């Protein structure tokens, strides 16, 4: 057990240590400072800008940023929808997988565009290699979009009274070429050497030791899996995601994939500190996030290591902890750690079945996505946290007897309005989605077109666990996470379309909100600090932000959690 | 200083008025302005309907008594919130009334355009009318003296019994309605339409008729509305969740959960806090033209203060005699006293004082010709009967006289002059028959306690700037001695204006106090301009506050009132929201325990039964409002200890307190409620 914990702790620490220099590098990129890699990337980017007719030095205001961001996303969505809808009759399909149904294509296209990757299909049989390639492309660009949005907010925080906030395409392309691509290449090579396939050939046939003939799916997996984690996407190449032996073959590959999903969210926070030249501020943010993360990880790892009390009562010893739904090559400690890492960060790739997690772990996984601001996804994690900073600044500004200011800009009614709206949106989407599904399930409604059979048919388990399955699916969608509780019958029009809508709203509104606030603040008059100004780079302000997050983000879900995993926990106890 | 302050928080008449108002304010039209409490009112109405339905035989909602009690508690919650607002208004009104008493109908003698005098009532006076007042008259309404000079008793307004002098022209020409002329006769022009004087505006503000929400209040209302909305979502979606779990929830439980979760504490107290802020300003004898001005005062970064009268006691005093080389100390003092005997300026008197009364008695200026100070000569003095010409004045003027007469300006005197200036003093050079006799040192006396006040301001983050007509050397010395951060020396009116504009350009908020007409532009430019009540009409128009006490240090108090106002809002919001944790733990297990017995594990307070848990939570939610009314009215204490330290302190008291108190409160109430169940 000590070895297992040592493994978890060392992965975590290595990620933090490496995130600091990477953060410095990212800050340089967004500041357009010189880096060692300029000779390699300058010509590539120049070429991209030239063929796409982009003037990367043109300064944009926040509205122009938003327009560019939304339009490129719309193009990708339609392109992806089209490919998935007709993949069966398009090239690069050696296994002859069929085309997707419109509702599944809708859901899949959205979920990859929005960096969620809910995947109501199985990679082996659901998509062609062409689709996989395009989905891989989306995993790059959706992460790049998030980072570009964060870069604009960085710029807005640094500038004094301006509406010139850099160029969206410049931030976006550089995020892809200079950060995502090189890191993915490193991870892909590491995975290759661990046995992950990288080929365009179709299924392979092997004969097992028992003499059975088995067909094994393969494909260009290593590259796909690298960006899946580096870009905090989580869309698996195979159905079982990172629990699949080819997708995540060894303990080492597991560690690499963990590191890969933690590294960019970590570095973005440090990058902010370097970029603003306010390193203490970024340490405070990182501290708050880490405290939140640890408060979720520790109970999870403990409850997984302790095993299931129901099994214990049967007189069965669980020397290795709760192993249901877990891979023996990873063990419960690092699996528990992964389950929180993947939900705190919006990766959503899984190396175990969360449906089989202990109730405490289930609550923590849900809470991680409900809060959705500890580390968070590529770029967007900081945007979510930014909303809570604004709210915390507002309340604590009042508490010290001064009109609230953040980095020298006054927070007024308009900013509070936007921040409050974004803060409400998350519980609204999760709770109303779950309420809709629960309503049908409670009445066991016949669903017609939406679902073949009655509503309870989509549940794999009755009672509290069934409720958690529905709650988890909407939570995962609203957090743009993409991990599944599995068990839920989700490939049908009802789930594909409702979660698709949740995905869209929960991706773009929480990007629009912070961009708007940052843009509005950047345009305001700059007020220099005085002794009466509340400093945001202090521990006490960190405590305040944490309290705001805990009360707004976590408390709204208390009744839902009580009826789901908490009820299960107390029943099991 | 002021006599019209009432120190007790609740007076029986005010409480009675407020109780009546609490019911009047249940009117949904009035309630609608406060979104948080409006939703509570809807909930109360629904509970009333549920009670009626039970009387008509509805079965599944529990007993009538239980539902009726929930209804009553919700109604009490509303009344408590209304009471908070009403009592704040009543206190403000009482304060305003005592001021208004001074301006009841008084007879006035209007001067008609043809010069005739007509007796009318004060309420008939229009803006621009002219009236006259003589000794013993009450001044009919606010105005400006256009002719004459009078001593006036302003104690009705300021509480200060010493009479003040008001005269036409100059900066002390304003008179206030309700004050009494003690001597002489003045002609006054009316400056306001009836009902539009500063005091009338202030009364309207406090009474709520024209009270507008301040920007911070609007932002906070939005945030509170958002919190309310989150809990609407939480409660509405709970219905299908509970249906799925086969855990039916009664309407009473739903509404109780909702009312407990939304921030009713701050929602109920919000307007009371705002009114109390203006009321506190009024108690400090400051009339504000809007609630926003008080709030802005809390944000002030830079404070401009006149040196004379604010930082130093009005006048300079002689502190030393320095004879020139070759002149005896005794002779020099004699000349100095002679030149000052007929000089009734404070400086002149202080020279005689310093020399001692014995010296003065021995000298006589009988038959002497007095030479008054003029701006051209910049000297004053006497020509004695025997023709001796003694002058004193600024060193350059004296030097000119000496040099023109062919005399020298002694080097030791020149050195002394510089030494005095650099110590913040003013040198006065005395010459007898065009020969330099020596130099008198005059010093400014800094008021006691100023240094501490400026330290306090510095800790609040406010930069203090002294404005003075002195030369830079003197100004620097006084600025250092008094502990101000910066100074404007040899200040002309436009210098103040430029300084303010410059600071504002850098994003600072500037406050200043002024009284003269030439202060008016700067008062208007400043973010907070406090005009003295004794000042000119122009100054009062330009500022956004008027200080009835004419106390230049009042701004410090105003800044603290502004800060208190914001802090009270912030801390009570935090308290209100932190309370939710305990309320969740009281109500959520109570909702589901019958259907899911395992959830007893969440009942960490070990409350008696689901009904008692819900009742305890709503009772706690209701009574916390009246408990906090005194705090809302008095305001949270402000201490200048730096923003982070204040945040730490308030988070501990109101955040952590808000987390823990309801756990204890709800448990205690539950113990009592359980006795009746």
Q: How are the elements arranged and paired?
A:
The complex is a heterodimer of chains A (573) and B (677).
Chain A: H1 2-30, H2 38-52, H3 62-86, H4 102-113, H5 123-126, H6 129-158, H7 168-194, E1 204-207, E2 213-216, H8 221-230, H9 251-276, H10 279-306, H11 309-313, H12 332-344, H13 359-371, H14 380-399, E3 405-406, E4 409-410, H15 413-443, H16 463-478, H17 493-522, H18 539-554, H19 558-572
Chain B: H1 12-24, H2 28-31, H3 35-55, H4 64-100, E1 107-111, E2 117-121, E3 130-134, E4 143-153, H5 155-158, E5 164-167, E6 174-175, E7 180-183, E8 185-190, H6 198-207, H7 215-244, H8 251-261, H9 264-283, E9 286-288, H10 291-297, E10 302-306, E11 317-323, H11 329-341, H12 346-355, H13 357-362, E12 369-371, E13 379-383, E14 389-393, H14 395-404, H15 411-422, E15 426-432, E16 435-443, H16 450-460, E17 463-467, H17 472-482, E18 486-488, H18 493-505, E19 510-514, H19 520-525, E20 528-532, H20 537-542, E21 545-547, H21 554-592, H22 610-634, H23 643-675
Parallel strand pairs in B: 10-17, 10-19, 17-18, 19-20, 20-21
Antiparallel strand pairs in B: 1-2, 1-3, 3-8, 4-5, 4-6, 4-7, 4-8, 9-21, 11-16, 12-13, 13-14, 14-15, 15-16
């Amino acid at each position: 057990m000590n070895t297992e914990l040592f493994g978890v702790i060392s992965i975590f620490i290595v990620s933090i240590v490496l995130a600091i220099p990477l953060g410095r590098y990212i800050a340089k990129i967004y500041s357009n400072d010189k880096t060692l890699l300029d000779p390699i990337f300058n010509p590539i980017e120049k070429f991209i800008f030239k063929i796409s007719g982009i003037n990367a030095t043109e300064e944009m205001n926040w509205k122009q940023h938003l327009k560019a961001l939304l339009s490129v996303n719309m193009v990708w969505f339609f392109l992806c929808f089209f490919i998935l809808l007709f993949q069966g009759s398009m090239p690069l399909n050696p296994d002859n997988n069929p085309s997707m149904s419109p509702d599944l294509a809708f859901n899949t296209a959205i979920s990859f565009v929005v960096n969620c990757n809910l995947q109501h299909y199985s990679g082996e049989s659901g998509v062609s290699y062409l689709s996989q390639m395009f989905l891989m492309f989306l995993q790059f660009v959706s992460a790049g979009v998030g980072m570009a949005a964060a870069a604009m907010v960085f710029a807005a925080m640094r500038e004094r009274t301006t509406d010139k906030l850099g160029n969206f395409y410049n931030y976006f392309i550089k995020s892809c070429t200079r950060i995502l691509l090189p890191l993915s290449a490193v991870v892909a090579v590491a995975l290759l050497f661990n046995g992950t396939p990288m080929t365009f050939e179709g299924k392979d046939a092997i004969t097992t030791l028992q003499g059975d003939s088995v067909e094994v799916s393969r494909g260009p997996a290593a590259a796909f899996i690298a960006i899946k984690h580096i870009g905090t996407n989580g869309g698996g190449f195979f159905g079982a995601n990172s629990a699949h032996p080819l997708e995540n073959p060894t303990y080492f590959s597991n560690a690499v994939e963990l590191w890969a999903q933690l590294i960019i969210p970590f570095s973005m926070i440090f990058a902010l500190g370097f970029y603003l030249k306010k390193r203490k501020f970024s340490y405070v943010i990182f501290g708050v996030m880490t405290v939140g993360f640890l408060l979720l990880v520790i109970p999870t790892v403990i409850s997984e290591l302790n095993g299931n009390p129901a099994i214990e009562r049967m007189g069965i010893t669980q020397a290795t902890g709760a192993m249901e739904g877990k891979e023996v090559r990873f063990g419960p400690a690092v699996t528990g750690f992964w389950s929180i890492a993947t939900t705190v960060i919006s990766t959503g790739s899984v190396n175990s079945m969360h449906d089989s997690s202990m109730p405490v772990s289930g609550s923590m996984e849900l809470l991680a996505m409900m809060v959705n601001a500890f580390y968070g996804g590529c770029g967007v994690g900081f945007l979510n946290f930014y909303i809570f900073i604004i709210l915390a600044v507002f309340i604590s500004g009042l508490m010290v007897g001064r009109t609230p200011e953040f980095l020298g800009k006054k927070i007024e009614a308009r900013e509070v309005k936007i921040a409050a709206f974004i803060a409400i949106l998350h519980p609204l989407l999760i709770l109303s989605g779950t309420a809709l599904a629960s309503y049908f399930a409670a009445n066991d409604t016949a669903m017609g077109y939406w679902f073949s059979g009655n509503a309870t048919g989509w549940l794999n388990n009755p009672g509290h666990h069934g409720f958690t399955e529905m709650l988890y699916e909407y939570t995962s969608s609203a957090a743009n996470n993409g991990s599944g509780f599995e068990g839920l019958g989700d490939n049908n029009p009802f789930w594909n379309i409702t979660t698709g809508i949740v995905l869209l709203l929960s991706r773009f509104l929480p990007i629009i909100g912070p961009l708007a606030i940052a843009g509005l603040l950047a345009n305001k008059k700059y007020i220099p600090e005085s002794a009466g100004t509340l400093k945001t780079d202090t521990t006490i302000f960190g405590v305040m932000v944490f309290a705001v997050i805990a009360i707004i983000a976590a408390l709204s879900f208390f009744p839902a959690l009580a009826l789901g995993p908490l009820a299960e926990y107390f029943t099991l106890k | 200083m002021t006599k019209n302050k009432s120190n007790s928080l609740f007076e029986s008449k005010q409480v009675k008025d407020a109780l009546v108002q609490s019911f009047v304010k249940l009117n949904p039209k009035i309630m609608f302005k406060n979104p948080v409490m409006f939703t509570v009112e809807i909930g109360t109405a629904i509970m009333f309907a549920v009670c009626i339905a039970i009387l008509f035989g509805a079965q599944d909602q529990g007993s009538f008594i239980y539902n009726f009690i929930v209804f009553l508690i919700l109604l009490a919650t509303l009344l408590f919130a209304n009471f908070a607002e009403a009592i704040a208004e009543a206190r403000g009104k009482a304060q305003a009334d005592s001021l208004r008493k001074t301006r009841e109908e008084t007879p006035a003698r209007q001067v008609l355009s043809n010069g005739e005098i007509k007796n009318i009532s004060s309420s008939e006076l229009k803006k621009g009318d002219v009236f006259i007042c003589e000794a013993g008259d009450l001044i009919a309404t606010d105005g400006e003296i256009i002719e004459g000079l009078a001593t006036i008793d302003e104690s009705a307004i300021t509480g200060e019994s010493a009479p003040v002098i008001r005269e036409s022209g100059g900066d002390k020409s304003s008179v206030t309605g309700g004050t009494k002329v003690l001597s002489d006769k003045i002609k006054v022009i009316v400056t306001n339409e009836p009902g539009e004087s500063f005091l009338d505006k202030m009364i309207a503000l406090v009474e709520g008729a024209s009270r507008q929400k301040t920007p911070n209040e609007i932002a906070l209302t939005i945030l509170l509305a958002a919190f309310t909305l989150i809990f609407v979502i939480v409660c509405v979606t709970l219905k299908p969740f509970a249906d799925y779990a086969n855990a039916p929830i009664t309407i009473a439980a739903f509404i109780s959960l909702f009312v407990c979760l939304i921030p009713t504490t701050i929602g109920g107290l919000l307007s009371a806090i705002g009114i109390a802020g203006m009321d506190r300003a009024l108690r400090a004898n400051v009339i504000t033209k809007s609630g926003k001005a008080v709030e802005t005062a809390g944000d002030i970064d830079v404070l401009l203060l006149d040196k004379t009268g604010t930082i130093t006691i009005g006048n300079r005093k002689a502190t030393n005699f320095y004879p020139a080389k070759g002149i005896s100390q005794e002779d020099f003092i004699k000349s100095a006293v002679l030149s000052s005997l007929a000089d009734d300026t404070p400086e002149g008197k202080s020279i005689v004082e310093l020399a001692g009364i014995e010296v003065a008695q021995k000298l006589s200026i009988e038959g002497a010709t007095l030479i008054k100070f003029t701006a051209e000569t910049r000297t004053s003095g006497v020509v004695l009967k025997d023709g001796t010409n003694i002058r004193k004045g600024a060193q350059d003027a004296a030097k000119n006289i000496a040099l023109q007469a062919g005399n020298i300006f002694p080097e030791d005197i020149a050195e002394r002059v510089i030494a005095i200036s650099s110590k913040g003093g003013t040198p006065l050079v005395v010459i007898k028959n065009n020969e330099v006799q020596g130099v008198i040192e005059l010093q400014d006396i800094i008021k006691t306690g100023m240094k501490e006040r400026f330290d306090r301001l510095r800790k609040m983050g406010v930069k203090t700037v002294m404005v003075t007509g002195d030369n830079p050397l003197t100004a620097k010395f006084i600025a250092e001695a008094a502990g101000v951060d910066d100074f404007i020396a040899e200040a002309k009116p436009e210098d103040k204006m430029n300084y303010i504009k410059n600071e504002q350009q850098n994003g600072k908020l500037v406050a200043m106090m002024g009284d003269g007409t030439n202060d008016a532009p700067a008062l208007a430019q400043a973010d907070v301009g406090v005009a003295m009540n004794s000042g000119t009409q122009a100054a009062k128009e330009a500022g956004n506050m008027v200080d009835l006490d004419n106390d230049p240090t009042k701004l410090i108090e105003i800044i603290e009132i502004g800060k208190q106002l914001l802090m009270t809002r912030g801390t009570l919001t935090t308290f209100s929201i932190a309370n939710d944790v305990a309320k969740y733990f009281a109500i959520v297990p109570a909702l589901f325990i019958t259907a899911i017995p395992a959830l007893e594990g969440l009942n960490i307070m070990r409350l008696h039964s689901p009904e008692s848990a819900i009742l305890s939570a709503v009772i706690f939610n209701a009574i916390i409002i009246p408990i906090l009314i005194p705090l809302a009215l008095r305001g949270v204490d402000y201490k200048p200890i730096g923003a982070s330290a204040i945040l730490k302190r308030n988070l501990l008291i109101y955040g952590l307190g808000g987390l823990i108190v309801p756990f204890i409160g709800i448990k205690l109430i539950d113990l009592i409620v359980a006795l009746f169940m």
